[in-house]
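Troubleshooting: if your tokenizer reports a length mismatch, compare against these two reference records.
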Amino acid sequence: MTDASDALQYHKNFPCGKISVVPTKPCDDARDLSLAYTPGVAKPCLEIKEKPETVWDYTSKGNFVAVVSDGTAVLGLGNIGPEAGLPVMEGKAVLFKRFADIDAIGICLGKVFNEKGRTDPARLIAAVETHEPSVGGINLDDIGSPACFEVEATLKRRMGIPVFHDDQHGTAIISMAAIKNALKILGKKLENCRFAVSGAGAAGVSCCEFYIKAGARRENFLMCDSKGVIHKGRTDLNEQKARFAADTPARTLADAVRGADIFLGFSAPGCLTAEMVATMAENPVIFAMANPTPEIFPDVALAAGAAVVGTGRSDFPNQINNVLGFPGIFRGALDVRACDINDAMKLAASDALAELAELPIPPEIRAKLALAYPEDAKNGMFDKSGIRADYVIPKPFDERVVPHVARRVAEAAIATGVARIAIRDFDAYEKSVVERIARNSAAVSR
């Protein structure tokens, strides 16, 4: 675990925070100044006024993402407010740049709350949509449920740039890739699997909806919130939960997991016990994604009979980490100037991650992974090829992840008609993303 004092010092070291602005053009003499600002800047201004689409040519909009939150559902910390959520949004901006060479800025919005201190969807929507002229995409983050569903859906309708709520879709995309490979190992089919789900917030609901789009059956889900199983007899369900109301006598999480093939945790530390795991179907899959303490620790789950286990943590195998998703998804979307990130693009991103885990790891990638994950390297994880119980999803520091995800996302965007730019040679495109990220990494490390 990270030491608290180290984390505080990391953020406080001068300059404070984690991001800064670096110009992409020189400003070293009078001529440069005249081009960067007055009088030269008037030329692109007038060009954009006459031809609005040239904003993509003369500004940084095409490689710029706003990471937006109101601080009402920050990590596992809850409703801590926009100021307290800002370090997370800055961190997201760091990951965008480090992994995908996308410029991003964290924007935490205040005065968008109702009298109870929760998100007022109309106020948040009105604030976010004003940013469309300046950025190429919106990454929503850490916005409380159920308001987050209305906020994202409305912004996607109103804005002509990609809008993506990472809490909903990032975890869904990555965990679906891991489930796909786990079931391949175990010889099970997604459409036949029974799911027990702990947690019915943005991540829990959206993950399950995404699995259904991928082929799972809605009737095979038993979802639990803080009051127990979501069943048809309950009268306290919002629209999103009501879609998972089951006709079942099950009332507790222990009831829900009995006979289940897959457990998904988006809830509370330690809520899944070894005794519960022992009642699940043969060779169950467990993704306990509560952070920093999972619903069950991997060693306990494996000892109780689990076949494949994943968590949200980097110190255990099969980390379900959103950094595997959003950098490559936005890289692909921005590069084809997509107006949306649709279901086909999300499914393509998930397939890309599943594909990559099955491929042999080249020696040069293996060497870098060994530096990033010394314990895994010592255990021989990167010496083998293909998927295994402890390797159903690639590692975040695998440099092939973003280029491959970006390629599949760009392909899907073009195929579904939401791209404004065509790519003719996808092999060449994927290679260009590899080279771009390598150049950026070299520049950052200097």
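Reference record two:
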Amino acid sequence: MFIGFSVSNFLSFKETQTISMIASKVARHKEHILNGNGKKILKTGLIYGANACGKSNLIRAIDFSRDIILEGLNEVDLNKKYFRVSSEGYKVPGVFEYRLITKTGKEYSYGIAISYEKKEILSEWLVRIEKNGIETCIFNRDINEKGISFTESEVKIKNNVEKTRWEIYLEDFGENISGAMKKKSILSDIAARSSKKRGVLTEIFEVFTWFQSIIILFPTSQYSGLNQLVEDESIRNQFSVLLKYFDTGIESVESKMGQMEFDKIFEGIPKEEAEKLKIRISNDIEDEPVMFKMNSQVYSLRKDEDGNIITTKMMQNHGYNQDLFEYSDESDGTQRLFDLIPLFYEHKGNSVIFIDEIDRSLHTNLTRRFLELFYKLTEEDTSQIIATTHDSNLLDLELVRQDEIWFIKRLSDHSSSVYSLNRYKERYDKKIDKEYLLGRYDAIPTFDDEILEDINA
């Protein structure tokens, strides 16, 4: 479960900004409340704000920091990711902190601070939080006043072998840390190196797995839940039912064995990039098919008994099975549903899903029905959706709780400020959609008519 996230000095976020999923005392929609480690946690977070206020940057901050945590600084682009509307942004650390609950029910605070200037991880910490509020530092990695790296831990390990192994892991990030290790997280290093997941190593691996399981959808991204769609008939049938439910005109989703050679799929892609993709995909294809989008089409690739790559194309039946439609033939809204629908059957019961522009290319009634269906189909699990949107039709306290609604506005120094609707203490019967558009909550575009006078001058 996702409890909260804080970020500072990343894109439009200058000072520390925080979004929290801790429920307030709002009485309505109790079915939107999850229980974890003695806390009441919200199932949804909807984020509103004007264009260029920083909504997408919040999702980007999660995506960016998750990549650093899992893959290291060498795998991310650090160029101009700091708060640029300041002469000091480049020299100030970027800080990202999460509050989370793993699948075993344990709560943690995990954070990481990076240097844009030195291109290294400055500090990293993992703290276990008990129900009674007692905190135990699993590890803390930092740099002292002399600029020397060190690590520390409050974990008590009785087994001498495990204790020695733990100390060796932490020493690698201590005073004699190498240049390569300065770009890696302790979390990913230990998760990769430790073959025996016992004691504290189990906790490390569970937190690492939590970050791996995060689902992040941008308007142009393709969710990996499609990986099973072409090859698995039962999932295709379920997918088809949902497409019909959302009134797309699609009767069913079909798979069609392609005659296209593997190499031809990459036509039009720069040669160097295409070669890297070919190698990566070829290595990834094992017993399971690999699904990916290329040139506005969705393909599934698998190997036959002789190791040859077989291509399968996803096609849609609009009522005449003699002439099937390709993915590229579908509307932008239907293509967006291909991203979103897998969330209903691929969430695996404990997924945290971040969506940038959940309403992109969708009719307002469809977006609302999508959320209603999400609540219905995930009643028995702990899945959460945190999404940015412009759709004021979702600003309805009959649909969501007021503590599930967040705003981001741009301040006078061009930085982003994050705050909850809950600060306004609105009544449950308030028409907040109209109040929002009238500017009561401040996170809307403002237009200075005096500027237009320069046009006529």
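Descriptive notes for reference record two:
- Residues 37 and 131 are 5 Å apart (CA to CA).
- The mean pLDDT is 88.
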